[in-house]
Specification:
It is a single chain. This protein is of the alpha/beta class. The chain has helices at 10-19, 42-51, 67-75, 80-92, 103-118, 122-128, 151-166, 207-214, 294-299, 310-313, 316-329, 331-342; strands at 4-8, 26-31, 60-65, 132-141, 175-181, 198-201, 224-225, 234-237, 255-259, 287-292, 351-352. Strands 1, 2, 3, 4, 5, 6, 7, 8, 9, 10 and 11 form an 11-stranded mixed sheet that branches. A hairpin with an 8-residue loop joins strand 7 and strand 8 (234-237). Helix 2 (42-51) packs antiparallel against helix 4, helix 2 (42-51) runs parallel beside helix 12 (331-342) and helix 4 (80-92) packs antiparallel against helix 5 (103-118). The radius of gyration is 19 Å and the shape is globular. The two termini are 21 Å apart.
C-alpha cells in the first residue's frame, strides 16, 4: 500500500524531470488550516526540513493560515525538528476540565502550547530568519465581527455565512485579510487577492500574537485584539478567508509545495458547508501536493486522521491513544517522501494533475 500520494502539476513535473528534487526547487510553501489534522504531517515536515529546507539558501515564501502558520513557525526555528518534537508532545498531552471547556480554557491551553513550541528565541527566529519568509494570514473582523464576544458576534458570523452562500464576494464586508510578513518579503497579489489585504511587518514583538490570531476560531478561541503593528480591531482565524487557499491563484513564477491532509481543498471556512464548493481537487500547473493516500487513511483505526471533533466523541485516554497511533503510522509518509527525493526517478509513483 502506498501511504503518500504526490500530485504534480504539469509545469512542476517538467521541473522535477529536468532538475530532480533539490533545496532550491520550491518558490513557495502552503500551510492550510485544520487544527489537530496537522499531526498527520509532523513526520513529513521533519523530513522536508532534513531533505530539503536545511540545505536551502534562497528566499522561500511560506504562506499559512491557522495551524498551517504554526507549522511554518516551527520550520523557521534554529532547530526545526526539536521545535516540532516539543509541539507534538505538548499537543498530544493537552487535557481539559470537561468535554466542553470554555473559551478561556481553550485559549490559555493554545497559548501555552504555542509558547512551549517556540521557546525563548522562537519569535525572533520567525521574524528574522535569513530566507524563510513567513506570511501569517489572519482575518480581521469588520462591523459585527469586529467584537470578540456577545450576540453581536454571533449575528455577524451568521450574516457572513449567509452572504458567502451566495458569493464569496460578500465576505470582505465582514472580514479583512491582514498578513503578517517578513519586512521586505513583498506582496503575493495573486494568491492573496481581494479582501483589502494589508501587510504588516513581522517583528519579534508581534509573532506570537499574529500566530494566535491566525488560529482564533470564533466561539472556540478568544479573538486577539489589536495585534501590535496591525490595524486596530479583533483578529480571527485566517482560515475564515483562506481555509485551504485558492490554489488556482498560485503565482506563476515557480513551484509551490503543499503538504496537506488530503487530496481535496476547500477555499474558505464557510465553504465547508457548501457541497458545490467543498472538497475540490486542485490542478495548478506549478503545484506539488503531498498528502496521505486514501488507502492509508482507510487503514487508520477510525478510517480518518485526527480532527477537532475527536474531543467530544472520545474520552481523553482513547483520544490520546488514537492520536498517538496516527502519528506513529504517519512516519510512513516521511519514509516514502525520502525514497522519492533520494531515488533515481523524481516522478516515480506521482500523479500528474
Amino acid at each position: 500500500m502506498q501511504a503518500l500520494e504526490v500530485r504534480v502539476g504539469r509545469a512542476a513535473a517538467r521541473r522535477l524531470a529536468a532538475e530532480g528534487w533539490h533545496p532550491e526547487l520550491m518558490a513557495g510553501l502552503i500551510g492550510a488550516s485544520g487544527g489537530p489534522k496537522w499531526l498527520i504531517l509532523g513526520h513529513l515536515d521533519r523530513a522536508l526540513h532534513r531533505l530539503m529546507l536545511q540545505h536551502r539558501q534562497q528566499p522561500l515564501r511560506a504562506v499559512g493560515s491557522s495551524i498551517g502558520s504554526w507549522r511554518h513557525a516551527l520550520l523557521a526555528q534554529d532547530d526545526p525538528v526539536a521545535a516540532i518534537d516539543r509541539f507534538e508532545d505538548v499537543y498530544l498531552r493537552q487535557t481539559y476540565s470537561s468535554a466542553r471547556p470554555d473559551i478561556a480554557e481553550v485559549t490559555a491551553a493554545s497559548r501555552d502550547m504555542l509558547l512551549t513550541a517556540l521557546g525563548e528565541q522562537g519569535a525572533r527566529a520567525v521574524a528574522e530568519h535569513p530566507w524563510f519568509q513567513s506570511y501569517i494570514v489572519t482575518a480581521r473582523g469588520r462591523g459585527l465581527t469586529g467584537r470578540t464576544d456577545g450576540p453581536g458576534l454571533a449575528l455577524g458570523l451568521g450574516l457572513a455565512a449567509v452572504g458567502n452562500t451566495a458569493t464569496r464576494a460578500t465576505l470582505p464586508r465582514s472580514f479583512q485579510r491582514v498578513v503578517f510578513a517578513r519586512p521586505g518579503a513583498g506582496a503575493i497579489p495573486s494568491l492573496l487577492a481581494g479582501f483589502q489585504t494589508e501587510y504588516v511587518d513581522l517583528s519579534e514583538q508581534n509573532v506570537a500574537s499574529a500566530l494566535l490570531a491566525s488560529g482564533a476560531i470564533p466561539y472556540l478561541f478568544e479573538g486577539v485584539c489589536d495585534v501590535p503593528g496591525g490595524p486596530r480591531g479583533a483578529y480571527w482565524d485566517g482560515g475564515i478567508i483562506d481555509y485551504h487557499f485558492d490554489l488556482q491563484a498560485l503565482p506563476q513564477d515557480g513551484v509551490w509545495l503543499y503538504p496537506h491532509f488530503g487530496n481535496r481543498v476547500t477555499q474558505g471556512w464557510f465553504d465547508k458547508f457548501l457541497p458545490w464548493r467543498a472538497g475540490r481537487q486542485p490542478n495548478p500547473d506549478q503545484l506539488i501536493l503531498l498528502c496521505p493516500s486514501e488507502a492509508f487513511l482507510a487503514s487508520l483505526p477510525k478510517g480518518k486522521i485526527p480532527d477537532r471533533r475527536d474531543f467530544g466523541r472520545m474520552s481523553e485516554p482513547e483520544r490520546m491513544r488514537y492520536w498517538r497511533h496516527c502519528v506513529a503510522e504517519s512516519q510512513r509518509l516521511a519514509e516514502e517522501f525520502e525514497q522519492l527525493v533520494l531515488g533515481d526517478d523524481p516522478l516515480r509513483g506521482t500523479v500528474l494533475i
